[in-house]
Write a structure and sequence with these properties.
Helix content is 32%, strand content 31%.
Length: 139
């Protein structure tokens, strides 16, 4: 019914579509691990169960909440609706301060306590994570 040329063209187009689909799937899978997502304290309070996997918590450092005891840094992250207490041991970024945006990476002990393994601070005075900016506008 169809000639040899038509069958070869169809096969060629089909192979290109399959290859393109596989390439897109591989790219999306590799990006899935590197995308930076964080949860606000309100989202953490809404969790049904606290998982033992590494997560990120983002928000603003509450005013007058930073306490330094020997090697431990304790502070409170807030989204102006809920708060979560954070303990961190390690080097603190120079831009980390009260009433500034911060993202803490680590493990959730319970819905009120977070053990951070890494602290990420904002880059300049004008930067604020989009989620935090949206939460401030809602308030």
């Amino acid at each position: 019914m169809y000639g040899r040329k038509v069958k070869l063209r169809f096969l060629f187009v089909l192979l290109i579509l399959i290859s393109l689909t596989l390439a897109v799937i591989l790219v999306l899978k590799s990006l899935e691990e590197n995308v930076v997502y964080f949860q606000s304290p309100t989202e953490i309070k809404a969790l049904v169960e606290t998982e033992k996997k590494k997560i990120r918590v983002g928000g603003m450092v509450k005013k007058n909440s930073i306490f330094i005891e020997s090697k431990d840094l304790q502070f409170v992250i807030t989204d102006f609706k809920n708060e979560i207490n954070v303990i961190y041991s390690g080097a603190v970024p120079n831009l980390f301060s009260e009433e500034k945006g911060v993202v803490a990476e680590g493990y959730l002990k319970d819905k009120n306590f977070f053990l951070a393994t890494k602290i990420l601070a904002k880059h300049d005075e004008n930067y604020m994570p989009p989620e935090v900016k949206a939460a401030l506008k809602e308030k």
